[in-house]
# Entry
Amino acid sequence: MATLVAENLTFAYAKKSKPVLNKVSVEIKPGTLTALIGPNGAGKSTLLRILQGQNTPDKGEIKIDGENLNRSRALVALMPQRSSMNWKFPITVEKLVSLGQIKYSKSRSNNPFQIKTLLAYPNSWINKCCELEATMQRVGIASLANRRLDSLSGGQQQRALLAKTLMSPAKIFLLDEPCAALDPPAKEDFLKIVRQLADAGLSLLVSSHDWGDSLNNYDQVIVLDKSVLAVGSPDQIQDKLEAINISSINENNFCD
Ligand SMILES: Nc1ncnc2c1ncn2[C@@H]1O[C@H](COP(=O)(O)OP(=O)(O)OP(=O)(O)O)[C@@H](O)[C@H]1O
# Structure
């Protein structure tokens, strides 16, 4: 369980350029599913990268359970946009998912894949294998373990990428447009899974272009367009959006 609080984040990609984020504050509570919505170029991906520590804000601060993000980066994991993946890479689902653990383990002294750890803690390898199996089951891809990534549907690929992300020891998960390019049933399946993860105590922030009934799956909705335009429950957001003129957002290619 972990709470992420970001306050007054301001960020520009170059010194003299205009900020792409301006005084953005967000709070992600344990066991909640939050949607981050906004038009193209609103700064959603930038914000997720900052919250994960890949980019540093020019101003503002990010704390996890009161500790600076620098000290607790391992508690935050980012699932990147699907366009950043090479889906043709010859790898099985199981191997991809296990990479989520190995990547993290490199920087840890208790890497369960290291011989010295194995000797000291013989169950660590078994535990990690169980975790791999459990994580694949959690997102409904256990039966696809030996399939190659390029033989999967888009929805299955996204679930495999989610499972890889879940293999990290994080408690807060930032998902960058995980439902982009998924057909409605696959989108619905994916949202059910993230809902279950939140109900199990994880904190999830999911960026999306979706506007409509799917927002009802979320506990909190943040509307971003360089700054936070509105934040609240799906019902509260509907009311607020009318006040801030949703048509101007739609004109900005705010799709679906
Ligand atoms: N690496 C970068 N260098 C310079 N500018 C960037 C970089 N990445 C993004 N930007 C700019 O920052 C702004 C915010 O982009 P960002 O990708 O965060 O928005 P977004 O809301 O995720 O957009 P989309 O919904 O289209 O993915 C845009 O104007 C974009 O052109």
